[in-house]
Every structure is written in structure tokens, then in C-alpha cells.
Design goal:
- It is a single chain.
- It contains five helices and five strands, in the order ββαβββαααα.
- It is of the alpha+beta class.
- It folds into two domains: 75 residues, Beta-grasp domain (Ubiquitin-like (UB roll), Roll); 80 residues, Orthogonal Bundle (DNA polymerase, domain 1).
- It has a five-stranded mixed sheet, sandwiched between helices.
- 38% of the residues are buried.
- Pathway: Alkaloid degradation; nicotine degradation.
- Pfam families: Fer2 (PF00111), Fer2_2 (PF01799).
- Keywords: 2Fe-2S, Iron, Iron-sulfur, Metal-binding, Oxidoreductase.
- This is Xanthine dehydrogenase YagT iron-sulfur-binding subunit.
Amino acid sequence: MTDMLLSINGDEYPVVVDTRETLLDTLRERLDLTGAKKGCDHGQCGACTVLVDGRRVKSCLTLTVTLDDREITTVEGLADGDRPHPLQAAFIAHDAFQCGYCTPGQLCSAVGMLAEAAAGWPSVVTEDVCAEPVLDEEEIRERMSGNLCRCGAYVNIVAAIGEVAR
């Protein structure tokens, strides 16, 4: 067990964690931040995606002890007070969810993906890796491919992200 001070959504959380404990379990079981979901527990579905220093990570594969002096953002921290994040508003407007189980991971992944594209990072389908990425449907689908939706709401998810990207 080790004492830690986690910075999550702009707040500090003192916590004692087992050195083998995942961030997902710390968030859900110790801190009652249940937005990130335990889908596959193998890093394959993306339901547990959160941001660490603005980069998307699968919290089911990330050990909590590795996050000292790092800023963690969960879906609970995306909104600005009562004002939803633009992606949250777009997901609602485009009906980009059905059961909603994957939605927190989709949202955090989309926030990280937009930041990656804004920084000029290419993806596998980027035609000219030296040019600014163009977030068309193919590019968004590729960049979001680590997040699965069992309901198949991909068309609306891509449309919502595309609206915010423009």
C-alpha cells in the first residue's frame, strides 16, 4: 500500500492504494467517480478511457501508482460547471448514444483525439503526414477506433465529433 495525492478534475484526493491497483478501480471504488466504466477490463473496448495530462489512457490498464504529479480528467470533469463540454452538447444534439455505457469513454477519447489532431499528429489514414490533419469521417473513425459501441451508434458519434472539430 502507498499514500498518494491524486489530482482529478482539478481537485486533490489523498488516497492509499495497493501498488497493483488500476486507476479505474481507484476512481470507481475509492473515489466514487463512476463515469469511467469497466467494460472488458483488458483495454480493448475503451469504456474506461480518461485523460492523463490531456492524453487518453485506458484506466483499466493504468496503475494508479504511476500517476503521481499527473492531472487526471474523467468525464465528470469535462463540463464547465453547469455548462456541458462542446462534445457533450454535440453528443446530445446528434443522439450519439443509445444505452450510454460507452459514452463517458467515447467523450474522453474524443477530447484527447481532438487535441492530438490540433497538435498535428497524423493517424494511420492521414494521407499527408506533413500536413495539418483533416478530421473527415474516415479520419475520425480511425482515431476513435479504440472505443467500441455495442449499440452501433457510430454514425451519430462521428457526426457529433465532426461538428465540434469544425
